[in-house]
Amino acid sequence: xxxxxDALESYPHRLTIATRWADxxxxxxxxNSVYYYYFDTVVNRWLIDNxxxxxxxxxxxGLVVETACCxxxxxxxxDDVVAxxxxxxxxxxxxxxxxxxxxxxxTQASAQGYFVHVYVDEKNRKPAPISDIMKKKLNQxxxxxxxxx
Length: 149
Known about the structure:
Layout: E1 13-18, H1 32-49, E2 60-71, E3 80-90, E4 94-103, E5 111-121, H2 132-140
Antiparallel strand pairs: 1-3, 2-5, 3-4, 4-5
């Protein structure tokens, strides 16, 4: 069964992203592939801002292994997108991030989805356990508080 749009308040972390002229497709709205750029942006920006990712220097990195998106209403240039972020599940070496995209000041998601990062050693690409520090920070944006691992 297809989920309905989530409310903005269900996402503990938010980032505003400006759409670009190039984001629109020939149909006059943001192309569906661009939504995944927004997903990547809110997650990686949160990781960087929380000291969990230092590009080119981190010993472990997250690789996207699964993703999905449901679309409810169009977003178009020159809208601002509020990307809401929460963590739904923390595994030994994986995290399921859930993202809602909200158009301008709207409080119902225009699109929402998820992606799963598997954290691997940056050099050998083998799964690496998530640190206790990272788990603690991920729990701060958990869907309903502390997430069991």
